[in-house]
């Protein structure tokens, strides 16, 4: 635990420049646990028995903006309607809690919410399967408020390779590059978390707007395929993008990588998906952990990644994407969304300046969304929407 003085300084900084977090899977948790029954998971009250996220803990954590993930599993037979249900969940949450949450579509909206003391609520789609290889569906998601799309999740899609699947098209296909161009035209941020390094590089070669990594850490610090290689981090200054460190222990702590592989296999043996966080699945997780103690990550572990990512990409190109409610386990002093001050206090103890921390928590994320808006205005002035199809471009 950080000294009281450091925590007080961290909380004061977050009052001025709150965390703009790149990724929270609350909508999926609400779908899985209570099928969107928001009375059963009232975020205005303590939900620590069920969730990493509720409004009191978001306030305690100094969160000022949140990209809510509208993720759906890639093996669902109809991912598009499921994605629409996720979007509807976020819209219901905003309508239910107007004193605390404010819908945000632009960088200006984020700043307006901060000025009002409300949490700017944005949306990000996690996985290109959510558009079913349709550029019209991509545009429809943007019209509904989605402001980034992760090109893949854990599995390849027909036009892009995932970090955790076997090579398919070798990065981005011709249609995949058209998806990136259309995202640029719309103003939707290209999110490169979950994608293979080949896909990262192809996207950076194609995009004319800054990219983000909504929840990824450094591969040099922890050699997991979900993390970002240094050569990609080093390209962010030229691109203008932002890499948002994640807190997931199996992505930030090397000892947790092997442990997680064994835990995932145990889940499969018991008939559960490794990412299942229902109460029944968590009982299986906890029994495994009782027999095989889990390697423990901390705020210092995450700070090690940020130190390296800052060195590789620069202070203007890093941010935070905790992945709360999308992971079974969290670092010891970053248990839930109330824990961000512990990370900021750790960075203060390492000599990070307050202006640099303001960039990390708030300013970089606001800037990158605003830059995508600027690119979109220019792109729309020069060309209309693309109606290309997967069959036309990839055969």
UniProtKB/TrEMBL annotation:
Gene3D superfamilies from the UniProt entry: Metal-dependent hydrolases
SUPFAM superfamilies: Metallo-dependent hydrolases
InterPro entries xrefs: Metal_Hydrolase (IPR032466), Pept_M19 (IPR008257)
CDD domains: rDP_like
Source species taxonomy: Bacteria, Bacillati, Actinomycetota, Actinomycetes, Kitasatosporales
Name of the protein this chain belongs to: Dipeptidase
Molecular function terms, GO-annotated: metallodipeptidase activity
Biological process (GO), any one: proteolysis
